[in-house]
């Protein structure tokens, strides 16, 4: 009797194995040949990951202060999964200071998690059923797809934005209510029930911000269609443009339904502490809060030592306002200017932005063909020349030729990476000219 092969993993696990990217084969090259200033200077410079090491010296000094961590017996014991009350109170005070909300943010409405990814995962699980969707203006952060589909099976449904300025639009890649309505209609026609809208403000990958008027319009659109609104504000203090001011959704007056708004913030971007894995959810929706805090939070709570370190970090408002934030933003501004200057030197346009660790760059002129295959050919050539940053396809951009370039890195390495990009552009132009 022939024996059938026994399954070694669950059907759920097999479905997770299917989440592969068209970039995987290229990223294998990057992993096999990473740049190092002394050990491998000819390696590939990675300008893909949105991390900020520019203020590490300030953070190191602050976190190593003696008063930063004083262990107590209670710190060695179990705690409520939504986070230490003292930590949530410190976060509430911090967010009240910088978000300027209409109503004070309270610790009782905050949930702390080991990163923003688990928060997105849990929100997807709670506000939508498998096979239902969320509208997300595209291009959008590529990992949103994994965040919502891996376990929750929620569909990120793109709201395509265009580089061409359309009627009643004032800038490229502008979000409008008309585009939201169009995407909602398309989702309905395809049988996808939309349960929410996700806005990333400041935007990743565009580095633009939403105006108060647009945010209000989006909230009214969501209210008309009974949609939850998730607002990702993890880059709110990463302004690189002089005078940049982010309109936080909690600062808006007369919003249609506060209980349908869920705000995400974390320490990874504004503080350059992605390794500390700390994300924060604010929601006034008691059903959402209870479902996450009593269910999901058991699997994604944050270790006590990290909470205590971060508590002391954000309680020092003088240090934040007078040293850390202005210094960090100045360094981001300098790095941003260096990147833009290098690209403009070889005639490559950059979408004007103001906040983030990256720029949205237009390489359409030097694509071998105006297709996504041509985009990947250019990406491959960049790898050949020792530099890597995400192509627009990773962000579900509707148009080929756009790339996100992270500029938040040591100036010497940034300059070298930019010179390799310039070399690639000149080669691509020469090939196009020669036919």
What does this structure look like?
Pfam families: Aminotran_1_2. This is Aminotransferase class I/classII large domain-containing protein. Helices cover 39% and strands 12% of the residues. It has 13 helices and 11 strands. The chain has helices at residues 11-17, 24-32, 56-63, 85-99, 116-127, 144-149, 177-189, 212-224, 286-294, 304-315, 317-345, 372-384, 411-434; strands at 45-46, 110-113, 133-138, 155-160, 194-200, 228-232, 261-266, 279-283, 358-362, 387-388, 402-406. The strands form 3 sheets. A 7-stranded mixed β-sheet has the order 2-8-7-6-5-3-4, sandwiched between helices. The chain has a two-stranded parallel sheet with strand order 1-10. The longest helix has 29 residues, at 317-345. The protein is globular, with a radius of gyration of 22 Å. The model has no long low-confidence stretch (mean pLDDT 95).
Helix/strand-derived category reads: alpha/beta
The main sheet comes to: 7 strands, mixed
Helical content class = 25-40%
Poorly predicted residue ranges: none
Mean pLDDT: 95
- Helix-strand topology string: HHEHHEHEHEHEHEEEHHHEHEEH
Strand content: 5-15%
- Total E-strand runs: 11
Radius of gyration: 22 Å
General shape? globular
